[in-house]
Amino acid sequence: MKSVFIFLLLMTGSMAVFSQTQSELNKTAGQEYKNADKKLNEIYQLILKDYAANKPFIKNLKEAQRIWIQFRDAQVDAMFPGSAKSYGSMFPMCKGNYLTELTHQRTEALRVWLNGLPQGEACTGSIGDKQGN
């Protein structure tokens, strides 16, 4: 009997974890996007600092980031072309999840300027050229 009670207690507790309201799910997705965006900006600022002496690279990176933001927004509009109401109460969660995914992709694309490429890679371009040589 004791084991049945413990089992039911565990099941109730685990179900409580999964029984979030849509509002809570929307809020969580929004917070995850904010966290991803914060990390992206941290990586971006580190690159700007590390490569400050490479003026042509910095100019082009800033332009690339500006255009990436336009791309990100256009990509979200392409994914959800209708009005927010047409997607129902899940829309904020779905949009937040998609923004998070796109932001993680961009963060990884930028991270190579901090971490470098695998040894032996011949096409490094500006990666590692912090002085603009």
From TrEMBL:
This is DUF1311 domain-containing protein. It comes from the Bacteria. InterPro entries: LprI-like_N (IPR009739). Residues 20-110 form the Lysozyme inhibitor LprI-like N-terminal domain. Pfam families: LprI (PF07007). Residues 1-19 form the signal peptide. Keywords: Signal.
